[in-house]
Amino acid sequence: MKHAQVDQQATPFAMMAKPIGPRCNIDCKYCYYLEKEDLFPETKKFQMSPAVLESYVSQQIEAGNAAGMKEIPFAWQGGEPTMLGVDYFRRIVRLQKKYAQPGVTITNALQTNAILLDDEWAAFLRDQGFLVGVSIDGPKKLHDRYRVDRAGRPTFDRVMSGIDLLQRYDVPHNALTVVNRANSGRGKAVYKFLKGIGFEFIQFIPIAERSTGVRLAAAPQIDADPANAVTPWSVAPQAYGKFLCDVFDSWFARDIGKISVQFFDVHLGSWLGENPSLCVFSENCGDALVVEHDGSVYSCDHFVYPEFRLGNLNDEPLSSLVWSDRQREFGTDKYASLTQQCRSCDFRFACNGGCPKQRFSKSRDGEAGHNYFCESYTAFFRHAGARLEAMADCIRSGLPASAAASNPHPQRNTKNREARR
Question: Burial letters for 353-384: b for 16+ Cβ neighbours within 10 Å, e otherwise?
Protein backbone atom coordinates (compact mmCIF):
# COMPACT_ATOMS: atom_id res chain seq x y z
CA MET A 1 0.00 0.00 0.00
CA LYS A 2 1.31 3.44 -0.86
CA HIS A 3 1.50 5.82 2.07
CA ALA A 4 0.40 9.44 2.22
CA GLN A 5 3.07 12.10 2.07
CA VAL A 6 2.61 15.08 4.33
CA ASP A 7 1.67 17.93 2.02
CA GLN A 8 2.39 21.47 3.17
CA GLN A 9 -0.92 22.41 1.56
CA ALA A 10 -2.85 19.59 3.25
CA THR A 11 -6.18 20.86 4.54
CA PRO A 12 -9.10 19.16 6.31
CA PHE A 13 -11.45 17.27 4.03
CA ALA A 14 -14.45 14.98 4.12
CA MET A 15 -15.20 11.84 2.17
CA MET A 16 -18.58 10.35 1.39
CA ALA A 17 -18.17 6.60 0.97
CA LYS A 18 -20.47 4.56 -1.26
CA PRO A 19 -19.67 0.98 -0.13
CA ILE A 20 -22.61 -0.44 -2.09
CA GLY A 21 -22.38 2.06 -4.93
CA PRO A 22 -25.78 3.09 -6.34
CA ARG A 23 -27.64 -0.07 -5.33
CA CYS A 24 -30.79 0.55 -3.28
CA ASN A 25 -33.76 -1.38 -1.97
CA ILE A 26 -36.22 1.31 -3.06
CA ASP A 27 -36.76 3.33 -6.23
CA CYS A 28 -37.19 7.01 -5.41
CA LYS A 29 -38.42 8.72 -8.54
CA TYR A 30 -36.12 11.70 -8.06
CA CYS A 31 -32.93 9.77 -7.23
CA TYR A 32 -30.00 11.01 -9.27
CA TYR A 33 -27.70 8.20 -8.12
CA LEU A 34 -29.39 5.01 -9.30
CA GLU A 35 -28.27 5.60 -12.87
CA LYS A 36 -24.62 5.61 -11.75
CA GLU A 37 -24.69 1.86 -12.32
CA ASP A 38 -23.99 2.76 -15.95
CA LEU A 39 -20.49 3.91 -14.92
CA PHE A 40 -19.65 0.32 -14.02
CA PRO A 41 -21.03 -1.81 -16.86
CA GLU A 42 -18.98 -4.88 -15.87
CA THR A 43 -20.00 -4.81 -12.21
CA LYS A 44 -22.44 -7.49 -11.14
CA LYS A 45 -22.19 -7.07 -7.38
CA PHE A 46 -21.85 -3.57 -5.99
CA GLN A 47 -19.96 -4.03 -2.75
CA MET A 48 -16.69 -2.55 -1.56
CA SER A 49 -14.44 -5.58 -1.22
CA PRO A 50 -12.60 -6.31 2.04
CA ALA A 51 -9.29 -5.27 0.46
CA VAL A 52 -10.64 -1.99 -0.91
CA LEU A 53 -12.47 -1.28 2.35
CA GLU A 54 -9.31 -1.73 4.42
CA SER A 55 -7.30 0.37 2.01
CA TYR A 56 -9.88 3.14 2.14
CA VAL A 57 -10.21 3.17 5.94
CA SER A 58 -6.46 3.19 6.51
CA GLN A 59 -5.81 5.87 3.89
CA GLN A 60 -8.60 8.13 5.11
CA ILE A 61 -7.18 8.01 8.63
CA GLU A 62 -3.64 8.53 7.36
CA ALA A 63 -4.65 11.50 5.22
CA GLY A 64 -6.66 12.97 8.10
CA ASN A 65 -3.60 12.73 10.31
CA ALA A 66 -1.50 14.42 7.62
CA ALA A 67 -4.00 17.30 7.61
CA GLY A 68 -3.83 17.61 11.39
CA MET A 69 -7.46 16.62 11.85
CA LYS A 70 -8.31 15.74 15.45
CA GLU A 71 -11.61 14.28 14.33
CA ILE A 72 -11.76 12.10 11.23
CA PRO A 73 -15.33 11.60 10.02
CA PHE A 74 -16.54 8.67 7.96
CA ALA A 75 -19.85 9.12 6.11
CA TRP A 76 -21.47 5.99 4.70
CA GLN A 77 -24.09 6.46 2.00
CA GLY A 78 -25.43 4.81 -1.11
CA GLY A 79 -27.61 3.66 -2.60
CA GLU A 80 -28.69 2.07 0.64
CA PRO A 81 -25.72 1.05 2.81
CA THR A 82 -27.76 -1.09 5.24
CA MET A 83 -28.20 -3.61 2.40
CA LEU A 84 -24.63 -4.70 3.23
CA GLY A 85 -25.74 -5.98 6.63
CA VAL A 86 -24.63 -5.09 10.14
CA ASP A 87 -21.62 -7.45 10.08
CA TYR A 88 -20.13 -5.42 7.25
CA PHE A 89 -20.19 -2.36 9.49
CA ARG A 90 -18.75 -4.30 12.40
CA ARG A 91 -15.77 -4.93 10.10
CA ILE A 92 -15.58 -1.20 9.40
CA VAL A 93 -15.38 -0.39 13.11
CA ARG A 94 -12.67 -3.02 13.64
CA LEU A 95 -10.62 -1.53 10.83
CA GLN A 96 -11.02 1.97 12.21
CA LYS A 97 -9.77 0.81 15.60
CA LYS A 98 -6.86 -0.98 13.94
CA TYR A 99 -5.61 2.16 12.19
CA ALA A 100 -6.69 4.87 14.67
CA GLN A 101 -3.99 7.06 16.15
CA PRO A 102 -3.87 8.26 19.78
CA GLY A 103 -5.56 11.61 20.35
CA VAL A 104 -7.67 11.37 17.18
CA THR A 105 -11.41 10.72 17.28
CA ILE A 106 -13.04 8.59 14.60
CA THR A 107 -16.74 9.31 13.93
CA ASN A 108 -19.29 7.57 11.74
CA ALA A 109 -22.44 8.81 10.03
CA LEU A 110 -24.85 6.58 8.13
CA GLN A 111 -27.46 7.84 5.69
CA THR A 112 -30.38 5.43 5.30
CA ASN A 113 -34.01 5.12 4.30
CA ALA A 114 -34.41 3.20 7.62
CA ILE A 115 -36.47 0.40 6.06
CA LEU A 116 -34.01 -2.43 6.80
CA LEU A 117 -33.25 -1.40 10.37
CA ASP A 118 -34.00 -3.95 13.09
CA ASP A 119 -33.06 -4.44 16.75
CA GLU A 120 -29.60 -5.74 15.90
CA TRP A 121 -28.89 -2.72 13.73
CA ALA A 122 -30.22 -0.29 16.31
CA ALA A 123 -28.15 -1.77 19.13
CA PHE A 124 -25.01 -1.67 16.97
CA LEU A 125 -25.56 1.92 15.88
CA ARG A 126 -26.15 3.02 19.46
CA ASP A 127 -23.21 1.13 20.92
CA GLN A 128 -20.79 2.37 18.24
CA GLY A 129 -21.97 5.98 18.38
CA PHE A 130 -23.15 6.27 14.78
CA LEU A 131 -25.08 9.37 13.75
CA VAL A 132 -27.93 8.23 11.52
CA GLY A 133 -29.51 10.43 8.86
CA VAL A 134 -32.97 9.29 7.82
CA SER A 135 -34.45 10.24 4.46
CA ILE A 136 -38.05 11.35 4.97
CA ASP A 137 -39.96 13.92 2.93
CA GLY A 138 -42.77 14.84 5.31
CA PRO A 139 -46.20 13.38 6.17
CA LYS A 140 -47.33 10.16 4.53
CA LYS A 141 -48.95 11.61 1.40
CA LEU A 142 -46.00 13.88 0.64
CA HIS A 143 -43.35 11.28 1.45
CA ASP A 144 -44.95 8.59 -0.68
CA ARG A 145 -45.28 10.83 -3.72
CA TYR A 146 -41.76 9.97 -4.88
CA ARG A 147 -40.26 7.61 -2.28
CA VAL A 148 -41.60 4.23 -3.36
CA ASP A 149 -40.09 0.76 -3.48
CA ARG A 150 -39.19 -1.20 -6.60
CA ALA A 151 -42.73 -2.50 -6.85
CA GLY A 152 -44.10 1.04 -6.75
CA ARG A 153 -45.44 0.62 -3.22
CA PRO A 154 -45.34 3.42 -0.62
CA THR A 155 -42.54 3.34 1.95
CA PHE A 156 -43.72 5.79 4.63
CA ASP A 157 -44.97 3.25 7.19
CA ARG A 158 -41.75 1.22 6.97
CA VAL A 159 -39.63 4.35 7.37
CA MET A 160 -41.62 5.37 10.43
CA SER A 161 -41.02 1.94 11.96
CA GLY A 162 -37.29 2.47 11.47
CA ILE A 163 -37.44 5.91 13.08
CA ASP A 164 -39.34 4.47 16.04
CA LEU A 165 -36.62 1.86 16.45
CA LEU A 166 -33.88 4.49 16.45
CA GLN A 167 -35.73 6.48 19.07
CA ARG A 168 -36.35 3.47 21.31
CA TYR A 169 -32.63 2.64 21.24
CA ASP A 170 -31.57 6.27 21.71
CA VAL A 171 -29.59 6.33 18.47
CA PRO A 172 -28.66 9.90 17.47
CA HIS A 173 -30.54 10.67 14.28
CA ASN A 174 -31.52 13.55 12.04
CA ALA A 175 -33.85 14.14 9.12
CA LEU A 176 -32.80 14.65 5.53
CA THR A 177 -35.79 16.00 3.65
CA VAL A 178 -35.74 16.47 -0.09
CA VAL A 179 -37.72 19.55 -1.10
CA ASN A 180 -39.44 18.63 -4.32
CA ARG A 181 -42.36 19.60 -6.50
CA ALA A 182 -44.86 17.76 -4.27
CA ASN A 183 -43.94 19.06 -0.81
CA SER A 184 -42.58 22.53 -1.63
CA GLY A 185 -45.92 24.23 -1.07
CA ARG A 186 -46.29 22.68 2.38
CA GLY A 187 -43.32 24.08 4.26
CA LYS A 188 -45.04 24.65 7.58
CA ALA A 189 -46.77 21.26 7.45
CA VAL A 190 -43.52 19.46 6.66
CA TYR A 191 -41.68 21.24 9.46
CA LYS A 192 -44.50 20.63 11.95
CA PHE A 193 -44.49 16.94 11.06
CA LEU A 194 -40.73 16.50 11.42
CA LYS A 195 -40.77 18.37 14.71
CA GLY A 196 -43.76 16.37 15.92
CA ILE A 197 -42.10 12.99 15.44
CA GLY A 198 -39.06 14.08 17.41
CA PHE A 199 -36.41 15.29 14.98
CA GLU A 200 -34.16 17.93 16.53
CA PHE A 201 -31.79 18.20 13.56
CA ILE A 202 -33.19 18.78 10.07
CA GLN A 203 -31.59 19.19 6.65
CA PHE A 204 -33.58 20.43 3.69
CA ILE A 205 -32.16 19.46 0.30
CA PRO A 206 -33.78 21.08 -2.75
CA ILE A 207 -33.86 18.96 -5.86
CA ALA A 208 -33.31 20.40 -9.32
CA GLU A 209 -32.28 18.21 -12.20
CA ARG A 210 -32.32 18.53 -15.95
CA SER A 211 -33.18 15.63 -18.21
CA THR A 212 -32.27 14.77 -21.77
CA GLY A 213 -35.54 12.89 -22.01
CA VAL A 214 -33.70 9.57 -21.60
CA ARG A 215 -31.48 10.23 -18.60
CA LEU A 216 -30.39 13.11 -16.37
CA ALA A 217 -28.12 15.69 -17.94
CA ALA A 218 -24.53 15.54 -16.77
CA ALA A 219 -23.27 18.02 -14.21
CA PRO A 220 -22.88 20.89 -14.15
CA GLN A 221 -25.87 20.75 -16.49
CA ILE A 222 -24.87 23.91 -18.32
CA ASP A 223 -25.73 23.50 -21.98
CA ALA A 224 -27.70 25.22 -24.67
CA ASP A 225 -30.02 22.34 -25.51
CA PRO A 226 -33.58 23.55 -24.79
CA ALA A 227 -34.74 19.92 -24.81
CA ASN A 228 -32.96 19.38 -21.50
CA ALA A 229 -35.93 20.48 -19.43
CA VAL A 230 -36.13 20.56 -15.66
CA THR A 231 -37.55 17.26 -14.42
CA PRO A 232 -41.18 17.11 -13.22
CA TRP A 233 -40.11 16.47 -9.63
CA SER A 234 -37.73 19.45 -9.42
CA VAL A 235 -38.82 22.22 -7.09
CA ALA A 236 -39.47 25.61 -8.70
CA PRO A 237 -37.23 28.46 -7.44
CA GLN A 238 -40.14 30.60 -6.22
CA ALA A 239 -41.68 27.63 -4.42
CA TYR A 240 -38.43 26.72 -2.68
CA GLY A 241 -37.95 30.31 -1.55
CA LYS A 242 -41.44 30.35 -0.04
CA PHE A 243 -40.80 26.95 1.58
CA LEU A 244 -37.71 28.33 3.35
CA CYS A 245 -39.50 31.48 4.45
CA ASP A 246 -42.49 29.57 5.81
CA VAL A 247 -40.32 27.16 7.77
CA PHE A 248 -38.16 30.01 9.08
CA ASP A 249 -41.20 31.86 10.42
CA SER A 250 -42.29 28.79 12.40
CA TRP A 251 -38.77 28.07 13.62
CA PHE A 252 -37.99 31.67 14.60
CA ALA A 253 -41.18 32.03 16.60
CA ARG A 254 -40.63 29.13 18.98
CA ASP A 255 -37.75 26.79 18.15
CA ILE A 256 -34.49 28.77 18.13
CA GLY A 257 -32.04 26.79 20.21
CA LYS A 258 -34.39 23.81 20.37
CA ILE A 259 -34.32 22.52 16.80
CA SER A 260 -31.37 22.79 14.46
CA VAL A 261 -32.25 23.48 10.84
CA GLN A 262 -29.01 23.27 8.90
CA PHE A 263 -29.91 25.99 6.40
CA PHE A 264 -30.68 28.50 9.16
CA ASP A 265 -27.66 27.56 11.27
CA VAL A 266 -25.33 28.03 8.31
CA HIS A 267 -26.71 31.46 7.51
CA LEU A 268 -26.74 32.62 11.10
CA GLY A 269 -23.02 31.91 10.94
CA SER A 270 -22.78 34.00 7.78
CA TRP A 271 -24.50 36.92 9.51
CA LEU A 272 -21.98 36.55 12.34
CA GLY A 273 -19.24 37.12 9.79
CA GLU A 274 -18.10 33.50 9.59
CA ASN A 275 -17.26 31.69 6.40
CA PRO A 276 -20.26 29.53 5.45
CA SER A 277 -19.75 26.07 6.95
CA LEU A 278 -21.63 24.24 4.19
CA CYS A 279 -19.90 23.66 0.86
CA VAL A 280 -23.02 24.77 -1.05
CA PHE A 281 -22.56 28.31 0.28
CA SER A 282 -18.80 28.54 0.77
CA GLU A 283 -16.74 30.75 -1.52
CA ASN A 284 -14.80 27.75 -2.77
CA CYS A 285 -15.53 24.03 -2.48
CA GLY A 286 -13.62 20.86 -3.24
CA ASP A 287 -13.09 19.49 0.26
CA ALA A 288 -16.04 17.05 0.19
CA LEU A 289 -15.22 14.15 -2.10
CA VAL A 290 -16.70 10.74 -2.89
CA VAL A 291 -15.17 7.27 -2.92
CA GLU A 292 -17.08 4.63 -4.85
CA HIS A 293 -17.32 0.92 -4.05
CA ASP A 294 -14.37 0.10 -6.33
CA GLY A 295 -12.06 2.75 -4.82
CA SER A 296 -12.67 5.36 -7.51
CA VAL A 297 -12.53 8.90 -6.12
CA TYR A 298 -14.64 11.73 -7.56
CA SER A 299 -14.60 15.46 -6.93
CA CYS A 300 -18.09 15.61 -5.38
CA ASP A 301 -21.20 13.53 -4.80
CA HIS A 302 -23.01 15.60 -7.43
CA PHE A 303 -20.18 15.25 -9.95
CA VAL A 304 -19.80 11.48 -10.22
CA TYR A 305 -19.14 11.57 -13.94
CA PRO A 306 -16.10 10.33 -15.87
CA GLU A 307 -14.66 13.81 -16.35
CA PHE A 308 -14.61 14.36 -12.57
CA ARG A 309 -12.98 11.05 -11.67
CA LEU A 310 -9.70 11.87 -9.93
CA GLY A 311 -8.33 8.33 -9.85
CA ASN A 312 -8.48 5.22 -7.70
CA LEU A 313 -7.08 4.88 -4.20
CA ASN A 314 -5.87 1.39 -5.12
CA ASP A 315 -3.53 2.91 -7.68
CA GLU A 316 -2.37 6.09 -5.94
CA PRO A 317 -2.61 7.44 -2.39
CA LEU A 318 -5.91 8.99 -1.39
CA SER A 319 -4.01 12.04 -0.16
CA SER A 320 -2.60 12.72 -3.63
CA LEU A 321 -6.14 12.71 -5.03
CA VAL A 322 -7.70 14.85 -2.28
CA TRP A 323 -5.03 17.54 -2.56
CA SER A 324 -4.30 17.26 -6.26
CA ASP A 325 -4.03 20.37 -8.41
CA ARG A 326 -7.02 19.09 -10.33
CA GLN A 327 -9.19 18.93 -7.23
CA ARG A 328 -8.01 22.31 -6.00
CA GLU A 329 -8.94 23.79 -9.36
CA PHE A 330 -12.37 22.14 -9.10
CA GLY A 331 -12.83 23.94 -5.78
CA THR A 332 -11.60 27.37 -6.85
CA ASP A 333 -13.64 27.26 -10.05
CA LYS A 334 -16.70 27.79 -7.90
CA TYR A 335 -15.71 31.40 -7.26
CA ALA A 336 -13.99 31.93 -10.59
CA SER A 337 -17.14 31.05 -12.54
CA LEU A 338 -19.54 33.40 -10.70
CA THR A 339 -21.76 35.48 -12.93
CA GLN A 340 -21.49 39.25 -12.72
CA GLN A 341 -24.91 39.33 -11.07
CA CYS A 342 -23.52 37.15 -8.28
CA ARG A 343 -20.38 39.21 -7.89
CA SER A 344 -22.35 42.42 -7.35
CA CYS A 345 -25.06 40.90 -5.13
CA ASP A 346 -25.54 42.16 -1.55
CA PHE A 347 -25.99 38.57 -0.40
CA ARG A 348 -22.90 37.04 -1.96
CA PHE A 349 -21.32 36.75 1.51
CA ALA A 350 -24.04 34.21 2.40
CA CYS A 351 -24.69 32.47 -0.91
CA ASN A 352 -21.52 32.63 -3.04
CA GLY A 353 -23.47 31.50 -6.07
CA GLY A 354 -24.75 28.26 -4.55
CA CYS A 355 -23.78 24.79 -5.71
CA PRO A 356 -22.09 24.64 -9.14
CA LYS A 357 -24.28 21.66 -10.01
CA GLN A 358 -27.30 23.95 -10.10
CA ARG A 359 -25.77 26.73 -12.17
CA PHE A 360 -27.72 26.02 -15.31
CA SER A 361 -29.85 29.18 -15.45
CA LYS A 362 -29.06 32.58 -16.89
CA SER A 363 -28.54 35.80 -15.00
CA ARG A 364 -30.61 38.95 -15.53
CA ASP A 365 -28.10 39.97 -18.20
CA GLY A 366 -28.34 36.63 -19.99
CA GLU A 367 -25.03 35.30 -18.66
CA ALA A 368 -24.92 31.51 -18.54
CA GLY A 369 -23.96 29.59 -15.41
CA HIS A 370 -26.27 31.35 -12.95
CA ASN A 371 -27.74 29.35 -10.09
CA TYR A 372 -31.24 27.96 -10.60
CA PHE A 373 -32.05 28.74 -6.94
CA CYS A 374 -30.90 32.39 -6.97
CA GLU A 375 -34.50 33.57 -6.67
CA SER A 376 -35.05 31.18 -3.75
CA TYR A 377 -32.04 32.34 -1.78
CA THR A 378 -32.62 36.03 -2.47
CA ALA A 379 -36.23 35.76 -1.31
CA PHE A 380 -35.15 34.05 1.89
CA PHE A 381 -32.37 36.52 2.70
CA ARG A 382 -34.71 39.47 2.18
CA HIS A 383 -37.39 37.81 4.30
CA ALA A 384 -35.17 36.57 7.15
CA GLY A 385 -32.08 38.78 6.95
CA ALA A 386 -33.10 41.31 9.61
CA ARG A 387 -33.98 38.52 12.04
CA LEU A 388 -30.73 36.67 11.35
CA GLU A 389 -28.97 39.93 12.04
CA ALA A 390 -30.89 40.36 15.29
CA MET A 391 -29.91 36.86 16.38
CA ALA A 392 -26.28 37.60 15.52
CA ASP A 393 -26.44 40.80 17.58
CA CYS A 394 -27.80 38.84 20.55
CA ILE A 395 -24.94 36.35 20.32
CA ARG A 396 -22.36 39.15 20.13
CA SER A 397 -23.92 40.65 23.26
CA GLY A 398 -23.67 37.38 25.16
CA LEU A 399 -27.36 36.60 24.90
CA PRO A 400 -28.91 33.46 23.42
CA ALA A 401 -30.02 33.81 19.81
CA SER A 402 -33.57 33.03 20.94
CA ALA A 403 -33.71 36.43 22.63
CA ALA A 404 -34.23 37.91 19.16
CA ALA A 405 -37.67 36.27 19.00
CA SER A 406 -38.99 38.86 21.43
CA ASN A 407 -38.87 41.33 18.52
CA PRO A 408 -40.31 39.48 15.50
CA HIS A 409 -39.97 42.48 13.18
CA PRO A 410 -36.49 43.98 13.69
CA GLN A 411 -35.06 46.62 11.40
CA ARG A 412 -32.04 45.72 9.34
CA ASN A 413 -28.73 47.13 10.57
CA THR A 414 -27.14 48.52 7.41
CA LYS A 415 -23.80 49.16 9.13
CA ASN A 416 -23.41 45.51 10.09
CA ARG A 417 -24.39 44.40 6.59
CA GLU A 418 -21.74 46.59 5.01
CA ALA A 419 -19.13 45.28 7.45
CA ARG A 420 -19.84 41.73 6.35
CA ARG A 421 -19.30 42.62 2.73
Answer: bbbbbbbbbebeeeeebbbbbbbbbbbbbebb
Among candidate residues 88, 13, 84, the one with its CA nearest the CA of residue 297: 13
Rounded CA separation 56/138 (Å): 35
CA 159, 258, 169: angle at the middle one, nearest 5?
A: 40
β-bridge pairing 361-362 and 368-370: antiparallel
Active site members: 301
Q: What are the pLDDT digits (tens) for 73-93?
A: 999 999 999 999 999 999 999
Task: Give DSSP secondary structure letters for 141-205.
Answer: HHHTTT-BBTTS-B-HHHHHHHHHHHHHTT--EEEEEEE-TTTTT-HHHHHHHHHHTT-SEEEEE
Q: Name the residue among 245, 256, 148 with its Cα closest to residue 204.
A: 245
Instruction: Show Cβ contacts of residue 41 under 8 Å, excluding neighbours closer than 6 positions.
Output: none
Whole-angstrom Cα Rg for the chain: 21
pLDDT tier for residue 222 given thresholds of 50, 70 and 90: low
Q: How far apart are CA 348 and CA 354, in angstroms?
A: 9
* pLDDT tens, residue by residue, 389-398: 999 999 999 9
Listed in sequence order, the residues at least 6 apart from 251 whose beta carbon sits closer than 8 Å to its beta carbon are 191, 259, 261, 264
pTM greater than 0.85 (yes/no): yes
Q: How far apart are CA 89 and CA 132, in angstroms?
A: 13
Question: Residue 297 — φ and ψ, nearest 5°?
Answer: -115, 130
